[in-house]
Amino acid sequence: MSFSYRVGWTVFRLIYSTYFRWKIVGRENVPLTGPVILAGNHASFIDPPLIGCALSRDINYLGRESLFRYPVVGWVLRSWNSVPVDRDGGGARGLKVILDRLLKGGAIILFPEGTRTKDGRLQPARSGVGLTVIKSEAVVIPVRVFGTFEAWGRHMTLPRPKRIGVVYGAPMDFSALRLEAKACGKDRLKAIYQEVADRIMAEIAKLEMKW
C-alpha cells in the first residue's frame, strides 16, 4: 500500500468500526495475491471503501472520469488505485485499464448492477461484469454489503449510524465459459457475458449476514 492509500484505509476502518459498528464475514475467501474481481451489490457511496478496507491487500477502485480533472481530487483518487471510467461505468479505455490492473495481479471492485439501488433491493446484473470476467483470468469473489442502504442510501443527505456489514463468498469457477468464449460466435459470446453476470448476482443473493 502507498502512504496515501494506507492513511485512507486506516481512516475508513476507524469510521466503519466506530460510527457504523461494522461486521466482516468471509474475508479469508479473498486471495492475498494475484488477480481478483470482487463483484458486489451496490446500495451506497460507502460500499467501495467498505469492501476494500476490510481486506489487508490494496484494491483498485472505479471512479467517475470527471472527478480526475480536479487536481487534488484526481491525485487522491490515483494514489488510491482508482480507475477512471465514463458516466456509465464502462467504455473501452476503462475496460483496458481494468484488464491491465488484473493482468498485473491486482484486485478490483466491480458492481454488476452498474448503479446504486433505489429501494434497497438487489437489481438485475448488466453484462459488463461478465465481459470483464471472461476476458481476464481473475478469481471472482461474490460480495454482499448489508445495512449501507439504511446507513446512507441515495435518498439521504447525510449518513446515519446504522450497523453495516460485508460478506465475502467462495470463489466462483468460470473456466468452462472462458474456454467456450474463445471459439463461439458473437451472439453466443454476448449470451455468455450475461450468463456470467446473472450467475454472480445469484451468488450475491445467497450470501447472508448473521448479526
Please compute the radius of gyration using only Cα atoms.
Answer: 17 Å
Which consecutive residue ranges, at least 5 long each, have pLDDT under 50?
A: none
Q: Biggest sheet: strands side by side, in what order?
A: 1-7-6-2-5
> In the CATH hierarchy, what is the superfamily?
Glycerol-3-phosphate (1)-acyltransferase
| Total count of strands | 7
Q: Please identify, by name, the CATH architecture.
A: 3-Layer(aba) Sandwich
N-end to C-end Cα span: 31 Å
Number of helices: 8
Mean pLDDT: 94
Percent strand: 15-25%
How would you characterize the overall build of this protein?
It is a single chain. The protein is an alpha/beta fold and 211 residues long. The protein has a single domain, classed as Glycerol-3-phosphate (1)-acyltransferase. The chain is built from 8 helices and 7 strands. A 5-stranded mixed beta sheet has the order 1-7-6-2-5, sandwiched between helices. Helix 3 links the parallel strand 3 and strand 4. It is globular and about 50 Å long. The chain starts with a helix and ends in a 5-residue tail after the last helix. The relative contact order is 0.20. The model has no long low-confidence stretch (mean pLDDT 94).
